[in-house]
Amino acid sequence: MHWRRAACRPGNTEEGIRTLNFLKAMFKLPLVFCIVMFWIACSNNKTKDNAAIFRNSTVISIDSAGWPQSFGFGKTATAAIIAAMDKDVSPDGKGLPHGSGNAVTGSLVYANKCVTCHGTNNTSAGGKLPGPPLFANPDSPQIKTIGNYWPYATTIFDYVRRSMPYNAPGSLTDNEVYAVTAYLLHANKLLDTVTSIDATSLPKIIMPAQKRFVADDRKGGPEVK
Ligand code: HEC
């Protein structure tokens, strides 16, 4: 076309190029209009087609499609798997395993497997670490920790054994759990460094927060949610 050739010719003025761009834009407008109209027409037809299909077809219930016996997820819970998980410890110490440990050994477990996330007595406050602080701080009594809020020492053992370290739950031996529990009690000024704790002595340690809780004696019914 004439305007195209003109645009390529050397020596065109700026005004000439502007006029050319304007003309190009004007040529494109009808094209855009056509595309939009075509698209609208097609989508209307589709809706009508779909409506017709639904009117004429029998609706098949998804539930009657026949589910497979198994989707292949998970694995069978063997007695050994269940036994490994079924190890809860009650507040009164029921369920505590054999073994023992003291705060000295526990401080090593803590340094190797816990401090990266929970910090030390000095670094744990402030909420900047991945794990919550584990040491009660008299200057910030509003921050709930195991030392000032947990009612039973046995719960520390139970919780740590089943869920810590966060990145490898269940990996500690029972002796390591006793030891690190002893260390946490010591760091919260509830146990000396050398006394070992075990299934008999741990339930006897009275936590400061125990008096703040009442036993849940509800037997069920509408008030229990
Ligand atoms: C990779 C990070 C990480 C490591 C390592 C780790 N923890 Fe934790 N810990 C957490 C996090 C995160 C939570 C909070 C979990 C939640 O509330 O669900 C937590 C919670 C706890 C709590 C409960 C505190 C509370 O007030 O609720 C205790 C006790 C605890 N950890 C002990 C330990 C001990 C002992 C070790 C080492 C054997 C350990 N953790 C290692 C991340 C970690």
Provide a descriptive summary of the structure in words.
The chain is mostly helical. The protein has 8 helices and no strands. The protein folds into 2 domains: 1-43, no CATH class; 87-212, Cytochrome c-like domain (Cytochrome Bc1 Complex, Chain D, domain 2, Orthogonal Bundle), CATH 1.10.760. 45% of the residues lie in helices and 0% in strands. Mean pLDDT is 81; it is low at 1-12. The structure holds heme C. Heme C binds at residues 109, 113-114, 116-118, 130-132, 134, 145-146, 156, 159-160, 164-167, 172, 180.
Number of strands: 0
Number of helices: 8
Uncertain residue segments: 1-12
The name of the CATH architecture of the largest domain is Orthogonal Bundle
> Could you describe the largest sheet, including whether it forms a barrel?
none
Mean pLDDT over the residues = 81
Look up the CATH topology of the largest domain: Cytochrome Bc1 Complex, Chain D, domain 2
Measured on Cα atoms, how large is the radius of gyration? 36 Å
* CATH superfamily membership of the largest domain: Cytochrome c-like domain
Q: How many domains is the backbone divided into?
A: 2
Element order: H for helix, E for strand: HHHHHHHH
The molecules bound to the chains, other than polymers, are: heme C
Derived from helix and strand composition plus strand pairing, the structural class reads mainly alpha
Helix content: 40-55%
Q: Please report which band the strand proportion falls in: under 5%, 5-15%, 15-25%, 25-35%, 35-45% or over 45%.
A: under 5%
> Could you state the oligomeric state of the chains shown?
single chain
CATH uppermost class of the largest domain:
Mainly Alpha
What is the global morphology?
elongated
What separation lies between the terminal Cα atoms?
Answer: 81 Å
